[in-house]
Amino acid sequence: MTDLDPTRLLVPLDLGAVKASNRVFMAPLTRMRAAQPGALASDLSVEYYRQRASAGLLISEGTQISAEGQGYADTPGISTPEQVRAWRRVTDAVHAEGGLIAAQLWHTGRVNHESLHDGELPVSASALPVRVRTSLKDADGAVIRANAPTPRALETEEIPRLVEDYRRATAAAREAGFDLVEVHAAHGYLLHQFLAATCNVRTDAYGGSLENRARLVLEVVDACISEWGSDRVAIRLSPQGSFNGLADDDGPEETLHVISRLAERDLAYLHISEPDWAGGPALPEEYRRRLRVAYPGTLVAAGSYDAQKAVRLIEAGLIDAAAFGRSFIANPDLPVRLATRAPLNEPVPATFYGGGAEGYIDYPVL
Ligand SMILES: Cc1cc2nc3c(=O)[nH]c(=O)nc-3n(C[C@H](O)[C@H](O)[C@H](O)COP(=O)(O)O)c2cc1C
Question: Which residues make Cβ contacts (< 8 Å) with residue 32, sequence separation at least 6?
Answer without folding.
Answer: 72, 73, 74, 75, 135, 137, 143, 353, 354
